[in-house]
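Moderator note: this is an archived Q&A kept for reference. The question asked for a predicted structure of one protein chain; the sequence and the answer are reproduced below.
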Amino acid sequence: MNSAILNDYGYTSEQGRPSDWYPFTFSARNSVLAKAPLSHGVFLLRAPESYPCKRKSSDIVYIGATFGSKGLRDQLEKYLRRRPAPLLNSNVRKLLRRNADLEVAWITTTSRAGAVSLKRDFLFWFKNQLGQLLRRIGACNQ
């Protein structure tokens, strides 16, 4: 799954297409959080280069969804804290600490259940297209 083909496969939000891609770094924290919606949804993190997987390559390194009541802005803010919560994906936190050039985009939904369902659909599609789920960020084939 390459981020450039998301729209081609019909992955759009209930309000339209996925958002633009924004820098997802500690230094861009305020800017990205100001743009992030308060609604529920799915967010995708991508790296500057694609990584080989079993069938194809992908620049998508993480797919997350909102589970709390505060929506996408709150979920993204948790990752961009200098001391993030321990339950967050440790590989994402490692990349952020190494100042990786990650970018984030999101697709909004009207409910938490919609976000969970859309994330499940993404993961299913990812596995079917690439032949596997991402096990380690930036290393599909490991």
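Archived answer notes: The CA atoms of residues 23 and 103 lie 4 Å apart.
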